[in-house]
Amino acid sequence: LSGGQRQRVAIGRALVRDVDVFLFDEPLSNLDAKLRSELRVEIKRLHQNLKNTMIYVTHDQIEALTLADRIAIMKSGEIQQLADPNTIYNQPRNLFVAGFIGSPSMNFLHGDLVNEGGEIFFRTHDVLFSLKGYRSQETLTGGRKVVLGVRPEHIKVDEEAGIGELHEAIVDIEEPMGADNLLWLKHAGHTMSVRIGGTRRYAPGAKVRLGFDMEVASLFDAQTEERI
C-alpha cells in the first residue's frame, strides 16, 4: 500500500469505533501536498457526516483553518487564543497569534499613536497613517507605543488603492504564484508583503501607491503585545 492508502486505512480503523471523541495527531504530516489536500477533504466530509467531536493536532495552519470549527493556538503549553477560524485570522488576540497564522504572515509596522487636530494617527518613521475605520478607533489615545498589523491581501496597490489616503512604496521582489502574485515592497523603513492578482506584474524598483484597509487591520500594544 502507498503512504496515502495506509493513512486512509488507519483513519478508517479509528473511525469505525463507537466513541464520543476522536484524536488526530498530525495524521497528514508525512504525505505529499496532493495527498494531504485529498485526505483533508475526506476528513472534513467524514466529520460532517459523523458529527462526532474531533480533536486535531497540527502545525499546518491550512489544515487548522479549513478543518476546524474552533482553533486553539498554543505557545509553550499555554492557549493563546481559542476561537473560530475567521476570528483567529481577522482578529488575533496578540502578536504571536497574528504572526503565526497566515502565509505570508501579517505585516507588522512599529510606531506610536499621535493626536493631530483631534484625530488619532499611527506614526512610523515620521509617516502618518489615518486610522479611520479601525474597529476600536474611539478607544485610541495618543502617546502610546503600538504595532500596526496588516495582512498582505488588505493592502491595495495602485488602481485598487482607491482615492483615500495613499502612500508611495518601492517594489523590491515579485513572486509569481499563478492565481496571484506576492510583491515585497519597501515603505517607511519597513519591508511589506502584498498579495495582488496574478495578471498584474511589477518590475523591481517600480514605484507603486498603497492604500491600507484599516477596517480589517490590527493594533497591538508594543509592551504587552495584546490586541487593542
TrEMBL record:
Ranges of residues in domain MalK-like OB fold: 102-155
Residues of the ABC transporter domain: 1-28
Main location: membrane
UniProt keyword list: Cell inner membrane, Cell membrane, Membrane
Gene3D superfamilies on file: 2.40.50.100, Nucleic acid-binding proteins, P-loop containing nucleotide triphosphate hydrolases
UniProt entry tagged with the keyword Cell inner membrane: yes
Any one of the GO CC terms: ATP-binding cassette (ABC) transporter complex, substrate-binding subunit-containing
Top-level taxon: Bacteria
Subcellular location(s) per record: Cell inner membrane
Keyword Cell inner membrane in annotation: yes
Membrane topology: Peripheral membrane protein
Pfam families in the record: ABC_tran (PF00005), OB_MalK (PF17912)
InterPro entries per UniProt: ABC_transporter-like_ATP-bd, ABC_transpr_MalK/UgpC-like, Mo/tungstate-bd_C_term_dom, NA-bd_OB-fold, OB_MalK-like, P-loop_NTPase
GO MF terms held by the record: ATP binding; ATP hydrolysis activity
Similarity annotation: Belongs to the ABC transporter superfamily.
Name of the protein: TOBE domain-containing protein
UniProt source species: Agrobacterium albertimagni
